Amino acid sequence: xxxxxxxxxxxxxxxxxxxxxxxxxxxxxxxxxxxxxxxxxxxxxxxxxxxxxxxxxxxxxxxxxxxxxxxxxxxxxxxxxxxxxxxxxxxxxxxxxxxxxxxxxxxxxxxxxxxxxxxxxxxxxxxxxxxxxxxxxxxxxxxxxxxxxxxxxxxxxxxxxxxxxxxxxxx
Length: 171
What we know:
Layout: E1 7-8, E2 12-13, E3 18-19, E4 25-26, H1 33-50, H2 74-79, H3 81-85, H4 134-158
Antiparallel strand pairs: 1-2, 3-4
């Protein structure tokens, strides 16, 4: 019950929306896809308003579930006859939310890898220091993953020409 009562940056309750005097929008869900969606919509509006004639049709699709692999959203759309008939030449994903007016586009192919890992070991007990437990093994794996993530972060920060599309974020 308390999680939804927290204030977003001390400005507004999470389930209330608030637009500041300088045009910033605060509230639950305003950071993720919505800002990039509005960038796409605004870009299409500006192209249309400018009278620019494009060589191809421009389509904008807004589908849910990209955080869980797109199986019930984008995948179903891509498998449809309607989508195939569009003859899509290029597709842009959600991109990256930014606080300035620029839009970051990555050209790298990124994939998620879902894994199921089973750990076995000696059963534990709160009153003893039992060695070789499954929890110890889980901790070792998580430590390695965090170490790899930190190394990737350092690579990104060390090279101003490198972008998020060139490192693996893990988690």
